[in-house]
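User: Can you predict the 3D structure for this chain?
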Amino acid sequence: MRVENVFNLAFGDKLNPFYHLGTISFWQFWLLVGTGFYLYIFADTGVHDAFESVEAITHDQWWAGGIMRSIHRYATDGMILTMFLHLIRHFAYDRYRGFRAFSWITGVVLLVLVYVAGINGFMLVWDKLAQFVVVAVAEWFDVLPMFNGTVIRNFLYEGSVNSRLFTLLAFIHLGAPLIVVFIMWVHVQRVPRAHINPPIPIRYAVTLMFIALSLIKPVLSQGGEADFSVVPTNIGFDWFELGVLALVYEMDPLKLWYLVVGAGIVFVLVPWLPPKRHGAAKAEAAITFHPANRAVKQRFDETILDAGLRQDINLPYECRNGGCGVCKCTVLAGKVDPGLYQPNALSAEELAQGKVLACCATALEDVEIEYDASAVRTNIKEYTASVVELTRLTHDVMRVTLKLPGSERIQFKAGQYINIILDDGQRRAFSFANPPHYGDIIELQIRLMPGGRFTTHVFEGMKVGDAVRFEGPIGDFTLRESDRPIVFVAGATGFAPVKSMVEDAFRRGIKRPIHLYWGVRQLKDLYLPELPQQWAKEHANFHFVPVISEPAPEDHWTGRTGMVHEAILADFPELKGHEIYACGSVRMVEAIFPFLKAHGAEDGQCFSDAFTLSARSMALQPQAK
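Assistant: Here is the predicted structure, written as structure tokens:
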């Protein structure tokens, strides 16, 4: 941590290379692939032509091929170094046990593969250093009973190495990166929202560093072309990558195998070896996040940040290494291990006040956490679409269908919404009524509000072909992944997000029981009732209950009447174990939740998309001038 603090002073907490070791390794791999592809175009894999082709690349086009060759070598060394430091750092911070053991093992495998591919790369140059490498490797493998001296026969004298064997070496060098990139992809699967590239300034810095090294100390062939009639001497040895081969001649090669294989096994088994520093943590803890009002499960030794991100809670974060303080949050209830972090990111006074860094802290029991929602990074884009259809569903509800230009689509989750941008920059929020698999269109269900500026325009002035500016998608009111029965409570046009979520659930094959209670004032306010009725006929797990609070005599209504929450409680006197999604006005949500919670509905399982005319978009309103 003291070393990292020094780097914080030099580079700042956001660009500290110790916080980006994994992504820097990825970036060096991309440099390896790019430069390797260029070198392969001009390199010859024939045993008698390999050396000449590499020399031509290095000297005849030093300004391109020569620099590429040097970057290729330096990026290999750099990748091995950053991967090793990445492993050591996770070991020092005790982040390699439990569910992280999988990432640790794949990380060890990656380090070995890159190291082996690097050694193999020395052979392809076919200079005197390559001669030493192939002979040392052959003699080392020949001590194994399965080979028993057969490998070295290929390198005993001039002419014993043929182009077929040399092409095999080249094939291994080309195939290794394919395996590496696959394992790299597997490696990051346990990390929610993992980044695979470092910040842009670090990318430039690493690339320029390698270019500068290539110009100051270019990589050159050693001692001329390989010649098995003489023993190579006076070669520039790469101790960083080839040190293990030097040991072949300094100790018993078989004992060297025991040492290398034994060290590899120990590295793989590290997650299960002592010391275990988090023995007090629960195998699984519940974390309730505020203001999202969502409860998620934390796996053993998982940080609060990773638990939230893994389960689609948008939390603020930056470095993920306890250095920047962006993920700072407050523990409202329960015990938390704050973990290891930089003191400049979280002071002792803040820790005493109950603040922790979500990227370092782990819950020791069920906890409640409050985070700064305004600090959450968003990827909200602005679009311009055209009105392609206007359909009046009732006297005061209009279905507005928008289409993006050409083949453009918007990626969103069922339950999210968009902000319509008015001429003066004001916003009006409306939920997606269509499911995500119909991303080429956007269906909105807009209710006419007396005196409403935009809704009045929709009913009186909007026409097909009009352009509509909007931004989105926004919000995290989405269906949670669980096995709990679902209860939807919709009021008026709160049916719009429900429609999106239910149709998406059907599309994804969700078989959980789904109950929709749709409350309106009179029968004329119930638009599209035939749609949920059709769902109930086609899907055995779906149930629809319309509720009218003030039915008119002419309606001849024989269904459920009264308040919508009363209908729910009549059917579900005990709501514990259910997920409840309320969609409608703030007034409706505030009215029903206390009643539902009094009958067992759990805080962490009650979700709402409450809205007023523009309540959900107030945070995005332009500043007054």
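Residues 62-92 form the longest helix (31 residues). The CA atoms of residues 212 and 218 lie 9 Å apart.
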